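Predict the holo structure. Ligand: uridine-5'-diphosphate.
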Amino acid sequence: MRKRILFLMSDTGGGHRASAQAICEAIGFLYPDQFEILIEDIWMDHTRWPFNQLPHLYPWLSSSGTRWWMVLWRVTQRPFLWKSIMRMTDWVTRRGILRFLREVQPDIVVSVHPAMNHLGVEWVKQICPGVPFYTVITDMVTVHPTWVCPEVTGCAVSTQPAREQAIAAGMPAEKVAVCGQPVGLKFAHLNGERPVLRARLDLDGERPCILIVGGGEGIGRVYDIARSVAQTVEQAQLIIVAGRNKHLKQKLEAIIWEIPTQVYGFVQNMSELMGAADILVTKAGPGTISEAFIAGLPIIISGYIPGQERGNVDYVLENNAGAYAEEPVEIARLINDWLHPQNDLLEQMKQNAARLARPQASLEIARLLCGHV
Ligand code: UDP
């Protein structure tokens, strides 16, 4: 009989589900037909108001409500406070969640969300004692204390700084494995033939290609940045990905562009776009940054969500894999500078980005979770 793996997550941002899906894809690749997988948004599907509203609240908290997000972030840095909040949450929500666990009877449980670890371990201990419980920390560098639960069976992190933080926060060193950020297998099998990709994507073969992305939701100053680049980097071509932001896509499509430009909504071929590009402009999302490392793509980070994405900015800068600039005019100036024929910075940053790449991350995590079952 197939073993059952349950992923505990919530759609607070797109990254937790994307990470779970990437790991599932890797499990299917390594162990075909051996596992049945469930990815469950615990807050949305198994709790009541107000807990089931958290995923709806998060887009506001991570954009115009960042001040409130930072209050929550700081308050929950103190173990006494967040453990009290968790105890209250548990008291209100546990009935529905325990009922769900009793129905599912998983063989392995994996948390890819910071709010699922301490409670998750207790819920699983109560309903299915002895079942292995893993945490996959989906924030690339900055590890919030809510991620760290020493009682778990094992824990996968993306980077060495994340491992050090997890251990400093109380995780036993032997339980923490640096596997990299889980990204889709398309990135593990990236076809490096840039001219082929460019031809397939109907791009100019000669012009430097600038890829502008605002995460899965198309957030940040994507429009202003694209306008500034188009008006000042005459020798380039642009790919702009608006993600799920329909309003942004419409606005971009209404422009008569000064340089060759392709506008997309939510794309399924990010690996191809990155493989064809020369420079990426993005917010500091861990998924997009890790994918860019694999594609060997220098990054201009144009913004970050305070708290969990701040460390990603430092990581890119400390490793000389890119730069940070918020102002569209400054971003266009940097691109012009990097593209100057006598400037070898772009080539150096490409190599530095590639050195940070972990294309096998999802496969490594899949082996960690399933290898001993
Ligand atoms: N993405 C995608 N298609 C799009 C836009 C984004 O597949 O049109 C993917 C991107 O490749 C990355 C993820 O969505 O894997 C975004 O994750 P990230 O952590 O960068 O940011 P988030 O959206 O979670 O804030």
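Residues 79-104 form the longest helix (26 residues). The chain has two domains: 3-181+360-370, 187-355.
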